[in-house]
Structures are given as structure tokens and as C-alpha cells.
Amino acid sequence: MTRGRSDLSQKKRIITSLCVLGIFLGFLYVYHGSIFGSQSHGASALEYGSRSWRKLGSSYLGGDEDNDSKQDESSTKYGQEDGEEDVIVKSFPVCDDRHSELIPCLDRNLIYQMRLKLDLSLMEHYERHCPAPERRYNCLIPPPPGYKVPIKWPQSRDEVWKVNIPHTHLAQEKSDQNWMIVKGEKIVFPGGGTHFHYGADKYIASIANMLNFSKNNLNNEGRLRTVFDVGCGVASFGAYLLSSDIMAMSLAPNDVHQNQIQFALERGIPAYLGVLGTKRLPYPSRSFELAHCSRCRIDWLQRDGILLLELDRLLRPGGYFAYSSPEAYAQDEEDLKIWREMSALVERMCWRIAAKKNQTVIWQKPLTNDCYMEREPGTQPPLCRSDDDPDAVWGVPMEACISTYSDHDHREKGSGLAPWPARLTAPPPRLADFGYSNEMFEKDTELWRHRVENYWNLLSPKIESNTLRNVMDMKSNMGSFAAALKDKDVWVMNVVPEDGPNTLKLIYDRGLIGSVHSWCEAYSTYPRTYDLLHAWTVFSDIEKKECSAEDLLLEMDRILRPTGFIIIRDKQSVVDFVKKYLTALHWEAVAVADSSIDSDQDGDDVLFIIQKKIWLTSESLRDSE
Hints:
Blueprint: H1 2-32, H2 39-45, H3 51-58, H4 68-74, H5 108-114, E1 159-161, H6 169-173, E2 181-183, E3 186-188, H7 200-210, E4 226-230, H8 236-241, E5 247-252, H9 260-266, E6 271-273, E7 288-294, H10 302-314, E8 315-324, H11 333-348, E9 352-357, E10 360-364, H12 370-374, H13 407-412, H14 438-459, E11 470-473, H15 480-483, E12 491-497, H16 504-509, E13 513-517, E14 530-536, H17 538-545, H18 549-559, E15 560-570, H19 572-579, H20 582-585, E16 587-594, E17 606-612, H21 618-624
Parallel strand pairs: 4-5, 4-7, 5-6, 7-8, 11-12, 11-14, 12-13, 14-15
Antiparallel strand pairs: 1-3, 2-3, 8-10, 9-10, 15-17, 16-17
Main location: Golgi
Subcellular location: Golgi apparatus membrane; Membrane
Keywords: Glycoprotein, Golgi apparatus, Membrane, Methyltransferase, Signal-anchor, Transferase, Transmembrane, Transmembrane helix
């Protein structure tokens, strides 16, 4: 009997100890899951493919370990799950500080972990490789220690806070080229570049002079509006074009010159992370009047000139390629050989030298198809197949072929576009490609002018004239939202869905810029790079694609600057869904209104304006102290 009681007593003690231990471990789990969780927690949680980490953000909606697929599906069906209406998501975990500059689809750690077999010589490692849903980070990207609200435009063109992008490598490496200089708490941009040490403004004027443009102004009385700057560095070339009413898409990869695009966007200059590799760039054909490469270190002769042919696809009829590089002027045998081969290639492409002076050559693309038709049979590179769509770009491999012009452009001997700024509101000729009428275009322009006016009335208590600079329209249609912002001191990245009508060419024809994208994936930009996101029915589209709306919220938070704004225009159930996440995302509601405020046809739409709060992790606070 005594032994039995002793065993029973011992068992009770063991059970009691296990219960206490369980409670203690549960307390630790809750404590470390708080928004100011420790760095060690963040590091362990951020292992790719961690099932438990993936569940942390969604478990508040009542999911369980055996119901992953159902949980993901429910996040895209707004207001349709019984009992979900009153559930508020309390918090998301915070990513480790090491990931404050995470770009999910351009993450080399992912490439290493997935053991992707990529051809480095073709720059495949700088192209987009997105994590599968189960491998995505489900946490908030923290700002760096000491983060400050960015300096406002136009002052930001010339200086940014060093704590916001704490990388001074380029200032040291390019010290003799005036890319950037560290001065106390700021990084200053004198306007220099690898080829234009003494300022982009003088270099730009010299290009205009070479082309005999009026008053040495590169905009050529409004006829040259959109520019593609490949290998742009910190985008000073694009920065100094803005004063001439020229909009440049500045492109560079996340390569050894790390953070160059991040610096460009922090300065308030249009820029995009990308590379001339194996896939077409996310821009439609005939988008740019000028392409520019200044010491961009690209091998234009590789793979039968495929990269130069990608530029050719992007250039408008009569468009220019300004090339400043040793091959254009050096007299050593290697450079002379490259020059001869490159000259022969562009001649077969029907380009001609428009000007050549000092260290720069400017080629011009033909205005019509005549030269292409007159080439000898078998001439390389060939013309593209008749069934090749030059505007199909999302995930489409580059082709080493020449895209010919449409019948319209051939007859018009050019794009037939009005000069800027008239082209912003003039119906573009390519409307006919979509069966759109001039009247539809004009109504759309007027509709969005009225909507944007109402947006600004709702935002006015929160913003001043220089509060916003970098704006993204997440579903742009014909670009009328951006057109309505012409008189604001902002620029707009217009995003067109990859699976709908590629109206991005209409946007470029209006003198605006943008890219094709799928919001089922992360965008090719650094965290904290946009001041305003406009999401017109984007969440409804995500629901139809059965992608995760929760992932989209986290992505929007990633690319939005602290104190930045989101305008959601969608159905009521979407707004109700987003409201559940405000606390977890550190967002706050600014205004809610139904579409009757606009008196337009989208009678069921609701406007929801949100502002992102500024916050720091406990590690960031300690580091900044």
C-alpha cells in the first residue's frame, strides 16, 4: 500500500512539473511572438520553408496544422467564412533586422537554398526567382536602426539620410566619379556618373547638342519624352532629365553595386530592379524614344546580339541609342574589334549613326519597315516570326530577332504621338489594338481626374504639397490615375496585370512609365520605396486568381514607406477584410467613403484610405541609441 501511494504521489509530482513546464513554454512562445520579439527569435523563425513560421500570421484566423490549403484559400474569400467577421488579427511577427532590405523574388539566399542551376554568364541569378507560397516570409520587414522619414523632394534629389540606406561602399568605390559622397548624417549626390564625372546636366546637354536639338534641350520640343537608362547606377542621369520634362525608366540589377536602385528611389527618382539577362524586360514594344548606356559593362555582342535586339524591341520608330563606352572611341585592338563587330551588327539591324563625338556614339532606329524588307535573304539577325507578340513580356524569353512595325507605324513613319504634354491626354493610336474608342479614352481620363480630386480632398488633412513623391498605381488600366496627377510633384509607377489586356503600351504612349506584374508575387523593388499605393480592385483580382490576400497585404507593407498611404478602392467585403489587419500591420484608417462621392459608375466600390505608422524593433531602438 505504501509503495502504491508513493508511486501515485511521484506520478502526481511529475504531472504537476510537466504542467508547470508546459505553461512556462507557452508563456515563452507568446512573449517571443510579440511585435518586439528578440532577434534570436526572428533568426530562427526566418528559415525558408518553416511550416510553423508560415502559420504564425494566419493562425489567428483559426487555422490548424492540417489545414494549410484551406486556410490559404479562405484568405482570398472576403467575408464568406462563418464566424470570421469579428476576428481581428492582433499581430504579425517581425522579421529579423538582417532582412530589412529583403526583396523576395531577388533574394540570393533563396537561390542558394533551392540550389537553382543558373547560368551566371547570362545573368540568370539577377533575374526574378520567387519563393513558393510555403517558403514565403510571413512577417513584417523592419526599418533599419535609426530610420528617419525620407528627405522631401526636390531636396532629396541631392541628399538622403545615411541611416535609411546605411551603405557607403559606392561612395568609396566611385569617389573619383562623383556618384555619391558621405557628409555627416547624409549621403550627397553631386550628379556625377562613371562617364560624366562633372555632372549629368552637362552630359545631357552634350547629347542634345550632338542631335542638333533646339536650345540643347534633349526633350526636342516635347518629342522625346520616355527614356530607358540601362545600368543606371544611382540614376543621376534620370534625375537630371526630369527638369526637361523627360521621364526615364532607370534600370539596374541588385549586383556588386548593391543598393544603387534603392538610392535612386530614396532620392525620389523613377527606377526599377532588373537586368538584361534571358527574359524580356517587363515593358511593351515601342515604349522609349531614347535608350542610354554609359559604361554599363554589357556585352552587346553575346548570343547573336540578343540584348541589343531587346533594346531594339523597346525603342520607338526613329528612336535613339546613346552609347558612351571605350568601344566607341578607344584605339586599342580589343576595343577596335568590338567596335567593328558592333557596327556591323547594328547596320544589319538597320540602325544608322545619327552622331558620333568624343566618347559617345548615337545610333538611330529606322522609321519604317523598308530597310528590313530590303535586306538580303538569310541576313542575321532574322525578323521575328509573324506570330511573335512583341508586347508579351511576363516570363517570356528574349528572342534574337527584329520586331517589325505595325502597319500603322509603317504608314505614319513613326508612332504618330503628339508632343509632350499634349500626348498625356491625346488618344494614343494604339487604342485600336484593344478596340477602344477615343470617346472611351476621354471618358476614362475625365473619370479619374474627378476621382483623384476626391482622393486628395480626403487626404488633405494628412498631407502637404511635398508629402508624396513616389507613387504606385497597382492596376493602371489606361494610366488615367497617373495622368490626373500631372500637376502634383510626384511620379507614378503604373503597374498592369500580367494576365489582362497589356494596356501598358497605352500608358507609355501617354508619356508615362510602368511595368507588367502579377500581384501573386512580390514586386521588384526594395522595402520602403513608395509613398502612396493605389489599389483599384486589386484585392478582388487576387481573389479570382486564388492567391493570398494576406501575402498581398504584407507585400504592400514591405514596399510602403513608414508614414506612407494606401488608397484601396474595392468592394465592401475587401475593406472589411483589410480592417481586420490594421493593428497587426501598424496601419491606421484615415478615411472611408462609398463611391457616391465620385458620382461614377462603380456604385458598389468603397474607398478606404490608410496610413502606415512608423515603428522600430527593440533591436533597432537599442542600436540607434
